[in-house]
Specification:
The protein has 122 residues and is mainly α. It has 2 domains: 64 residues; 37 residues, no CATH class. Helices cover 66% and strands 0% of the residues. It contains 6 helices and no strands. The protein is elongated and about 75 Å long.
Length: 122
């Protein structure tokens, strides 16, 4: 006779949502006393588990993102750069300068433009 499939209780669903903000699926499975594959199988069968897991991850990402955005708005250059790289598609590239061609902007002009962009985020 096949084993009965495990179903997570309402209390366990709440735990999954809370734990999803700080643990991996493997760690949550360990916490619940099951193999990672069993946890994945439960998420497939019991859609509420996947919903609670995703909601927990989204809440944590939203919380951290708010803090990052606040730091960027407050003028933290590293936070602003990280935000722009991950959210606006900015990237670092290798620039090959031609010494015969004058730079379009001076360092002071570039700093002013960056400061202006940061102040617009506020």
């Amino acid at each position: 006779m096949p084993r009965k499939s495990r179903v997570l209780s309402k209390e366990e669903l709440v735990q999954v949502e809370a734990l999803a903000s700080v643990l991996t699926t493997e760690q949550i499975a360990d916490y619940l006393g099951m193999a990672r594959q069993t946890f994945y199988d439960i998420m497939q069968r019991q859609k509420a588990v996947a919903v609670h897991y995703k909601r927990g991850k989204a809440k944590a990402i939203g919380f951290v993102s708010q803090g990052l955005l606040k730091k960027a708005r407050d003028g933290d250059t590293s936070s602003a750069i990280f935000y722009l790289k991950t959210q606006a598609g900015w990237k670092e590239t290798t620039v090959h300068e031609n010494k015969d061609v004058a730079n379009e902007f001076s360092d002071e002009e570039l700093n002013a433009k960056i400061t202006s962009l940061i102040s617009k985020l506020k």
